[in-house]
Amino acid sequence: MSATSSPPGRLLNPLRQLGRAGLFLLTAFSRMRLTRFQAAETLRQIYFSGVRSLVIIVTGGFFVGLVLTLQTYDTLSRFGAAEAVSTVLALSLFRELGPVLTTLLFAGRAGTSITAEIGLMRATEQLDALDLMAIDPMERIVQPRLLAGIVAVPALVLIFNVCAILGGVVFAVFMMGSDPITFWSNMQATVELWRDFGHGMLKAVAFGFLASWLAVYFGWTARPTSEGVALATTQTVIATAISVLILDFVLSAFML
Asked: Where are the domains of the chain?
């Protein structure tokens, strides 16, 4: 039995992978250069990973708001507190659901595309060709995609939250007949700008960095075969989902 197939080896594999990912990130930052090309390529990647994800973000946010308001309204109405539905909706979105669900949707749509794109570059030897032309692949390929995720995910979180609140308004006000003034006044009276909204946006930045880091790392280290690229995209989604949930708990514990 080999060392990697033994139980201790299987337990150490995630730690080895984390160490390799950390070294990869340090290398990417150590080679970072702020040039005109970098800025233009980063904007292009923001469009690719952010703007092209708007459909799934808007649709997902609206229906999450509908479902969350439906379930919350049904529960609170049993205790005569249906007026607090907007408070529960806003706090749930700003603190937890908005950043977490947006990042998971981002990983499923944009993260897998980034991994597959870089993995195919590895399989078709395009990264090696850049090396031969004295062009740093880290600077040309990795860094713009890494920076784009840090910018795109917080913007998508804002859009997700707005759409989810609109979904809550549609259900509570237009379908259940709640007073719109009470709906908005309760939300404004209970949501704090920094404690609730600000902390959620800090999570969005951290999650965006994490999701883009894992996407480019698994693409960079993918085996140069079709099976290797397919496995890398799967690893991106799984690793991002688990890491985001763990990081969400850690950040929530420190913020609260």
From this structure: 35-255
The DSSP H or E segment spanning 132 is helix 126-132
Mean pLDDT by 10 residues, the chain (256 residues): 56 78 86 81 92 94 94 86 88 94 95 93 86 83 91 96 95 87 89 90 96 94 90 94 95 88
Contact assessment for residue 172 and residue 183, using Cβ atoms and an 8 Å cutoff: yes
CB 77, CB 225: distance < 8 Å? no
Sign, CA torsion 176/191/212/148: positive
Q: What angle do CA 213, 35, 155 make, to 5 degrees?
A: 45
**From residue 256, how far is each of 189, 200, 235, 249 by CA, in Å?**
19, 12, 31, 11
All residues at 6 or more sequence positions from 164 whose CB lies less than 8 Å from its CB, including other chains: 61, 62, 64, 65, 68, 89, 93, 97, 98
- For residue 13, the 8-state DSSP code is H
Burial class (CB in 10 A: 0-12, 13-18, 19+), 110: buried
pTM score:
0.90
- Start-to-end CA distance of the chain, whole Å, equals 47
